[in-house]
Amino acid sequence: MKLSAPLAALLTLVVATACAPQSSSNSASDRDEKTGTLRVWLFQEVGNEPKKKVVDTVVAAFRKAHKDTKVEVEYIPVETRAQRVKAAFNDPASAPDVIEYGNTDTAGYVHDGGLLDVTREFSAWSEAKNTDSTARQSVTVAGKVYGAPFYVGVRALYYRTDVFRELGLKPPKSMAELATTARTIRVAKPDLYGLVVGGAYTYGAMPFIWANGGDLATGKGGSYASALDSAAARAGIKAYTSLFSDANCPAAKCAGMGGNDTVTAFAAGKAGMAIGGDFSHAAVEAGKVKGKYAVVPLPGVAAGSIAPAFAGGNNLGVLKSTTHRTLAVDLMERLASKKTQAALFDAMGFLPTFTDVRDQAAARQPFVKPFVTTLASGTKFVPASPAWSQIDSSLVLPTMFQEVISGKKSVDAAAKGAAAKMNDAFGSAG
């Protein structure tokens, strides 16, 4: 996700609901009420109003089809979803019926018994046949489906065309050129960050690790070991953290930034470059840089290469505790439908998960091209382990980056400590 994206103590893999026996209906409630109020939690975006308008239209149609229903939609910050979701899993009375969640959360949420198995409904849903295979995989655990893909997201390099033109710069072709270009902008225009980066921007940092030949973890089949302390991963960590300096993005201002913070800074005209997603397009368009920016794939280490991007995106799911199974699944499918995804693309720039809708969107809007190119060049994902929710929520990677940025630890020491934390989480997940 901006996904996304991803944050404290999300789903510590031993919450009470995880230990409860699962009913054969995959629902903690035997009730399937056909009237009443449905609660929906969706993520708050940078510039949320366009998303809200699309959702309001879907909700209006849903209520027209189900006369005796109401829908309460709450937009929650991505950064604080951990506490909210954990509380919802532990207290069904406070839980929503439908929830938006990052695709990295799927395995952990299923492990903790929070999501409803909707395999039967998804298989019967006529639109599901056009869902791309990666998106389908993102809602699937052990052969069962636990939601509907909402959008797919990858990140690329946004840059100021006016600044580049004025300084005689060209889009960087390698990570070394990226750093040099960032410093050049900062020297010429000290009121701008060269490349705005964030110490809490996990998914913006990962491509630096992958581009240098490193990885987050090794293993498969649910059994993983951290690879953060490998030489290649440490090279990527060094490349990313070196961008936090007065010559580019001062640590005092940038160490605490997350992804939304960096996009906001770029949109406000405070940076020459930023790493942003296709889902960031609407926010940038609404900012001061409208008409003065372009996007290219984030370059890799070798000149002309593309850095592997995180295969992000969000899903929609029904909570196991719902007392409105039929209604909740219907609302989930309406929110994740082809019509809604097409509207969200037009409103927010979210890439559809349906292959036919995405092809149509790309044909209509040229801005999609660098993101589709990035997808086609090869993407990466986080370990498919329920432990990832714990690793993500306990800020293992941001803490590592910030330890290096602050000078508290060397790259080697910070990477070693982060790897130990990751291995503890993998071990606790079984």
Distance between the termini: 26 Å
Number of helices: 20
What structural class do the secondary elements suggest? alpha/beta
Determine the fraction of residues in helical runs and give it as a percent range.
40-55%
Give the strand line-up of the largest sheet: 2-1-3-14-6
Rg over CA atoms, rounded to whole Å, is: 21 Å
Beta content comes to 15-25%
Taking the sheet with the most strands, its summary is:
5 strands, mixed
Shape: globular
Mean pLDDT: 90
Give a verbal description of the structure.
It is a single chain. By secondary structure, the chain is of the alpha/beta class. Helix content is 43%, strand content 17%. It contains 20 helices and 15 strands. It has helices at residues 16-19, 49-65, 81-90, 106-111, 119-124, 133-137, 161-167, 175-188, 202-211, 231-241, 251-254, 259-267, 281-285, 325-335, 338-348, 355-364, 369-377, 387-393, 396-406, 411-428, and strands spanning 36-43, 69-76, 98-102, 140-141, 144-145, 148-153, 155-160, 193-196, 217-220, 223-226, 271-277, 293-296, 309-310, 312-318, 379-380. The strands form five sheets. The chain has a five-stranded mixed β-sheet with strand order 2-1-3-14-6. A four-stranded mixed β-sheet has the order 8-11-7-12. A two-stranded antiparallel ribbon has the order 4-5. Helix 10 (231-241) packs across helix 19 (396-406). The longest helix is centred in the C-terminal third of the chain and has 18 residues, at 411-428. It starts with 15 loop residues before the first helix and ends with a helix.
